[in-house]
Amino acid sequence: QALTLFLPFPSLVGKIWLMLTILLRMAVVVLAGYPLYQDEQERFVCNTLQPGCSNVCYDLFSPVSHFRFWLIHTVSILLPYAAFSIYVLHQVAMHIVRMHCLVHGCKGNRGLSSPKDVKELCRSAVVKRIDCAADNLSVLNFSGAYTVHLFIRTLLEVAFAAVQYFLFGFFVPDRFSCYHSPCTSTVDCYISRPTEKSI
Q1: pTM, 2 dp
Q2: Tally: H helices and E strands in the chain
Q3: Quick one: fold of 11-198?
Q4: How many CB atoms neighbour CB 33 within 10 A?
Q5: What is the pLDDT of residues 102-124, one digit of tens each?
Q6: Which one, of 77, 57, 83, lies nearest residue 177 by Cα?
Q7: What are the residues whose beta carbons fall under 8 Å from the beta carbon of 76, sequence distance 6 or more?
Q8: Are 185 and 179 in contact (CB under 8 A)?
């Protein structure tokens, strides 16, 4: 029961929403993005027989693999949440140790001798379910850290959306015109399934 006071999110709805967001994003990237873009270069057809021209045009059209870009995007969005979760777990563990010392009167031991002692104190605090007086029971506040974590995630979302726009745009064209060495003239290249990719 004591651990329910330290959960990092305000409600069960918030936790479910976060998990659904993460799972749905991963599902869209892996189940929809990968099959759609795995054969992208093979189906990028240019009306030229000039050796190397199609490869150069594809590199200009797609400087980074869409799928890898979205994978990096998803992992980057999860990093602030992982850091926040580790911070919360650390603070909760330290709070349990302080409560244990408060209840059992650790007068001489201001510091703990080893991480093993911390584990034992935490385990005993949870297993024994320490009965604390109402005056000594305090609820940890993670609202500041949670706000910072949300701010960083929002900045990352905006940054990746901007990079997405400058690298690829938000719509996939039917045709891509390219003129770059070793192409001897302007070459038209055609992208597979542009409407589906735009959607």
Answers
A1: 0.68
A2: 7, 3
A3: de novo design (two linked rop proteins) (1.20.1440)
A4: 19
A5: 766 654 444 555 555 555 655 55
A6: 57
A7: 156, 160
A8: yes
